[in-house]
Amino acid sequence: MYKKLLNSQLSRITPEQYKTIGKTPVVLILDNIRSQHNIGAAFRTADAFAIEKIYLCGICAVPPSSEIRKAALGAEESVEWEYHEDTLTLVKTLKAKGITPLAVEQTENSVMLNRFIPEPGKKYALIFGNEVKGVSQSVVDICDGTIEIPQFGTKHSLNVSVSIGVVLWEVVSKMGRLFER
Predict the structure, then answer these.
(1) Taking a C-beta distance cutoff of 8 angstroms, is the pair 15, 77 a contact?
(2) Fewest CB atoms less than 10 Å from the CB: which of 68, 129, 144, 175?
(3) Are 30 and 42 in contact (CB under 8 A)?
C-alpha cells in the first residue's frame, strides 16, 4: 500500500534555508518568455533542483506578480533572480566569467539531451527561448553549444516550462545531484 505523504511529512527547507544550501552549478536564462505562468513554473522548477539563479530577459515579467506567484508557489522568493533587458549582453558577460552558455534549441549540430554529458567543475547557463520564436538567433550564435530534447510525435516543440523541467531533470541527474539524498 502507498499512502500519500502530507506536506508536513516532506521535511522541506524554508526559503531562508534554501538561500544557504549548496546549489547546482546551473543558471537559467529566460529569453523573452511571454507567459507569466511559464516564468512562475521556471521558478518552481529551479527551486526543486536548487539552481543558482534565474535571469529574466527582454519581455519577461518580473516578481512581484500574482500570475508568476500562482505557478511559482512562492519559489520567486527562494530562487535568486535578476532582470536584464538584453539577453545577448548578459550571455556575453556570463561567458566572460567562465560560465558555459548552452541554448536549448533545435539547431544544426545540436546535441540530443540524452547524449549531453556535463563536464565536472563547469558551470552552465541554460537558455530557454520565447514560446513562439525560441532562443534568439543572435544568442544561439554566441553559445558554446545547443541541446535538443528528442521528440517523436507530430509536434516540433514542448511548452517552455515543460522543456525546463525535462532539461533540468536530465542535467541535474547527470551531475549527480539527484543521488545526494
Answers:
(1) yes
(2) 144
(3) yes
Name the maximum alpha-carbon separation found in the chain: 54
d(CA 49, CA 173): 10
pLDDT tens profile 22-31: 999 999 999 9
**Nearest-10 crossing angle of helices 160-174, 36-48:** 10
Query: Residue 170 has which C-alpha cell?
Result: 536530465
**In terms of Cα–Cα distance, which of 121, 59, 123, 55 is closest to 91?**
55
Task: Name all domains of the chain by residue range, CATH numbers in brackets.
Answer: 15-84+92-148+159-175 (3.40.1280.10)
pLDDT digits (tens, 9 = 90+) for 30-63: 999 999 999 999 999 999 999 999 999 999 999 9
Cα gap 155→43, rounded to integer Å:
26
Sign of CA dihedral 47, 48, 53, 59: negative
Model confidence, pTM:
0.95
Instruction: Give backbone dihedrals phi and psi of 86, rounded to 5 degrees, phi first.
Output: -120, 115
